[in-house]
Design goal:
By secondary structure, the chain is α+β, with helices and mostly antiparallel strands. It has a single domain (4-415), classed as Cytochrome P450 (Cytochrome p450), CATH 1.10.630. The protein has 20 helices and 14 strands. A 5-stranded mixed β-sheet has the order 1-2-10-7-3, sandwiched between helices. α10 (171-181) packs across α12 (195-215) and α12 crosses α14. It binds protoporphyrin IX containing FE. Protoporphyrin IX containing FE binds next to α14, α15 and α19.
């Protein structure tokens, strides 16, 4: 299928600033050309993979489809800028999503234990306390607020800062950097910064943290990274900075986007809100449905190491594939009524957290955070309604709502 407009739309940040446009594009691809050779202007070509089974197949074959050297979509001009700045390296950072094989396993093992269910469980009470504080702040704002910008954005940031062991005074600085990092080309979110500047800001910030933790190690993840060794040798500055950037960035925006997107889905589906209120035990399943529904990570790339036939299309060694998670998560062949939001959807085999060796490191943490927040909201909020038009970040990579004006009625106010 040849359609330059479609190819350009798929690579354009703007497409993802309108969820209806995004999903119309993916629905067409799933129906007409599910493994689509895409040649957008100003970008190196790639295969767009839009079906659930095909995304899973690629994720499973981690030796045939590598994360390096092209892990996400950048324009050719931007790739050249990075290569010049990084003296030929293809990435600004080389964190877990840019690693493969034993290298990836060794680096992942450094922090993996912190993110396993057993360890996350130990944080239950502290996470629940942060969720309570978040809903206290919602209540204090009065009946109207921007649920994304004033509420959702702070909560996962505080959780990841707690795990990294960072001081509360740094919240605003880290928030600004993260938003610029994931802002795509959205001027409202990037506020004059860009990905290169945001990465440099992250690195400068974490250099200070690292130096401090080498001198005075504590029991947080920042100390673990600052003093980490792989193969008996301390990890280098580039690898350590990259690790911090991956955790601080991935650990934040994804989860706030899901929290806000989940609230919007519940406003638009009041029966589902009532169902949850009547039965809070449905919260874990509801959180999975929110991740499917929002799919805040729009893609990751893989590069084929050998020729491979996928759904009848001949992928050549060296070619790149874009795994389109929001599309896989609306695949009609896997999800009954995929465009309906059901808090009790079962089964729900979404790939919102990816799959295989690179499956989201923070998956259990993110689920725990979101469950704690929605339990607290259900206990204390009687009713949410929209108070203006929601707006989404223009980004082809990671993001969701950037504005969610709501009116809130707390249960206490109803009882009074
Ligand atoms: C709802 C929230 C989240 C969503 C939807 C999400 C989604 C994803 C996805 C799709 C991937 C790529 C998986 C793949 O390539 O197969 C990923 C990787 C990753 N995520 Fe998350 N994530 C979330 C929250 C978090 C949190 C809270 C952390 C905090 C530690 C985190 C850290 C990471 C890291 C470090 C990776 C790279 C893993 C690797 O390459 O080995 N994420 N995430």
């Amino acid at each position: 299928m040849k359609d330059p407009d479609l190819d350009n739309a798929l690579a354009s940040n703007k497409t993802y600033g309108d969820v209806a446009v995004q999903h119309a594009l993916f629905s067409r691809l799933r129906a007409e050309d599910p493994v689509h050779w895409c040649e957008p202007e100003g970008f190196r070509p790639f295969w767009a993979v839009t079906k659930h089974a095909d995304v899973m197949e690629i994720e499973r074959l981690q030796d045939k489809f590598l994360n390096a050297p092209r892990s996400k979509l950048f324009s050719i001009a931007f790739e050249q800028q990075i290569a010049a700045l990084m003296q030929g390296k293809p990435h600004l950072v080389r964190g877990l999503p840019q690693m493969d094989g034993t290298d990836h396993r060794s680096y992942r093992m450094l922090t993996q234990a912190w993110f396993q269910p057993k360890q996350v469980k130990l944080l239950d009470e502290r996470i629940a306390a942060l969720a309570r504080r978040t809903v206290d702040e919602l209540e204090a704002r009065g009946p109207a607020c921007d649920f994304y910008g004033e509420i959702a954005v702070w909560y996962p940031l505080r959780v990841i800062m707690m795990i990294l062991g960072l001081p509360a005074d740094d919240e605003e600085r880290l928030l600004r950097i993260t938003q610029a990092y994931f802002g795509g080309s959205d001027p409202e979110v990037q506020k004059g910064s860009d990905l290169i500047k945001a990465t440099q800001d992250y690195v400068a910030y974490f250099d200070g943290v690292s130096e401090d933790r080498r001198r005075r190690p504590t029991d947080d993840v920042a100390s673990l990274i600052a003093n980490a060794q792989v193969d008996g040798r301390p990890i280098g500055h580039y690898e350590a900075s990259s690790y911090y950037v991956a955790l601080a960035s991935a650990g934040h925006d994804t989860t706030s986007a899901t929290a806000a997107g989940g609230v919007l889905a519940l406003i638009q589906n009041p029966d589902e809100w009532r169902k949850l209120q009547a039965n809070p035990d449905l919260v874990p399943g509801a959180v999975d449905e929110m991740v499917r529904w929002v799919s805040p990570v729009k893609h990751f790339f893989r590069t084929a190491t050998e020729d491979y036939v996928l759904r009848g299309r001949e992928i050549k060694a060296g070619q790149n594939l874009m795994m389109c998670y929001p599309s896989a998560n609306r695949d009609e062949e896997v999800f009954a009524d995929p465009f309906a939001f059901h808090v009790d959807r079962n089964p729900n085999r979404h790939v919102g957290f990816g799959f295989g060796a690179h499956v989201c490191l923070g998956m259990f943490l993110a689920k725990t955070e979101l469950q704690a927040l929605f339990r607290e909201l259900l206990a204390r909020v009687d009713h949410f309604e929209l108070d203006g038009a929601p707006a989404w970040v223009q980004t082809s990579f990671v993001g969701g709502l950037k504005r969610l004006p709501v009116r809130v009625r707390m249960k206490e106010a109803v009882a009074a």
